[in-house]
Amino acid sequence: MLAERMKNLHPYVPGEQPKDRDYIKLNANENPYSPSPVVQKAVCKAAKKQRARMGLYPDPDSHELKEAIADMLNKTGGVLSRTVLSGGRKNGSGADCTPDAHDRIPFAVTSDMIYCGNGSDEVLSFVFYAFFNSDRPLVLPAFTYSFYPVYAGFYQIPLDAVPLKADWSLDTDAMLSRANSADTSIIFANPNAPTGIGLSRAEVRALLEKAPKDRVFVVDEAYVDFGGESCIPLLTDFPNLVVVRTFSKSLCGAGMRLGYLVASPDLVNAVTTVKNSLNHFPVDYIAQQAGIASCKDAGYYVRASKLVVEERESFITFLKDRGWDVIPSKTNFVFARKIDEATGKAKSGEAMYRAIKEQGILVRHFATPGIEDFLRITIGTHEQMFALKKAMEQL
Ligand SMILES: *Cc1c(COP(=O)(O)O)cnc(C)c1O
């Protein structure tokens, strides 16, 4: 009964969401903080006072949300953990934001440079459809966001996966030479997942300068707010660049399902054409209101991102002191493996994962050959990290 094409599907497996026990969840890179109180108010208002609005279709192109996103990017510089705050409450709510000098975007991001979708996963799937051909391989790192191969299967786009370097960073020279020899596109997450390592903007610029100019180049900045360098400032120099971002990590909004991309208006129009051929209204009314309110209270998320970065640095020190091999992270997670003192070899990641789970804490383990010794541990609140450290002392 199934269509032929079903054989190309290899669905993504998300971090587990168990119901049997109240685990501390550090396995899906969600933000441990709740959305800003301003967002909670906006959602209640949208649901209550404007009840009649729920019976109407939402704005198919999320115009007001795009304006709010553009405004937030211009005000913060697009890397929340480095944005400078002034005034506001202790939790950052209501504060004014000024970009760190290094992050300041040298032009005004406008709403015609933004496309909004139902989570960045959906945005990515439309990007795959709009820009990647099935007559040539898409170049990507061998270890990166595991949804990319899933979309490649869905749209039948062949892949050319380039191994990481020995220090787990991207092999940019190899990616470049393969992209040039096949005259094809490149996609990667920056900072990358699940490793957590980021390329600098200068490094991405160097790649863009030598990569095929007539092929779209995609940088997924899901984690950039936790200390990476955004490529948005490169957009005016590279009309083939697409920067994908999400509300799910630094904007504490994984449940709202909001993602977006920033690119030249031409590329935004192409993705909009895909959307209008598949699902005219991907972002519902409540999510649009929640997103707008989030962007308007960026100070709250700046504060939350800074807290996550502080906890991450303290956790990395904790791990290193206890003989873990930790990959440097610019994200809201840490990728690490325990080295056995006696043998100098890594202990089983699977066993570590199980031992931590027994103590009521979920972290992520990938059985994928090459990274099977590692755990990917999401940074939680101070209390959650305290509990995790205590649990890990028992290992
Ligand atoms: C979490 C994540 C996404 C997906 O974000 P959603 O907006 O929740 O769909 C995309 N890319 C990377 C690299 C991620 O880690």
Keywords:
alpha/beta; 11 helices; 395 residues; 35% helix; 14% strand; 5-stranded mixed sheet; 4-stranded antiparallel sheet; globular; binds pyridoxal-5'-phosphate
Distance, first to last CA? 50 Å
Instruction: Count every helix, treating DSSP H or I runs of 4 or more residues as helices.
Output: 11
Query: Which descriptor suits the 3D outline?
Result: globular
Classify the helix fraction into a percent range: 25-40%
Structural class: alpha/beta
Give the strand line-up of the largest sheet: 4-10-9-8-7
What is the C-alpha radius of gyration, as a whole number of Å?
21 Å
Major sheet details: 5 strands, mixed
Low-confidence stretches: none
Strand content: 5-15%
Mean pLDDT value: 96
Could you give the order of the helices and strands? EHHEEEHEHEHEHEEEHHHEEHEEEH
In short:
The chain has helices at 37-47, 63-76, 120-131, 147-155, 172-182, 201-210, 265-276, 285-296, 298-321, 349-358, 382-393; strands spanning 24-25, 84-86, 96-98, 114-117, 138-141, 159-162, 186-189, 217-220, 241-246, 259-263, 324-326, 333-338, 361-362, 364-365, 375-378. The protein has 395 residues and is an alpha/beta fold.
Description:
This protein has 395 residues and is α/β, with parallel strands linked by helices. The chain is 35% helix and 14% strand. It is built from eleven helices and 15 strands. The strands form five sheets. Strands 4-10-9-8-7 form a five-stranded mixed beta sheet, with helices on both faces. Strands 11-12-15-14 form a four-stranded antiparallel beta sheet, with helices on one face. The longest helix has 24 residues. The structure holds pyridoxal-5'-phosphate.
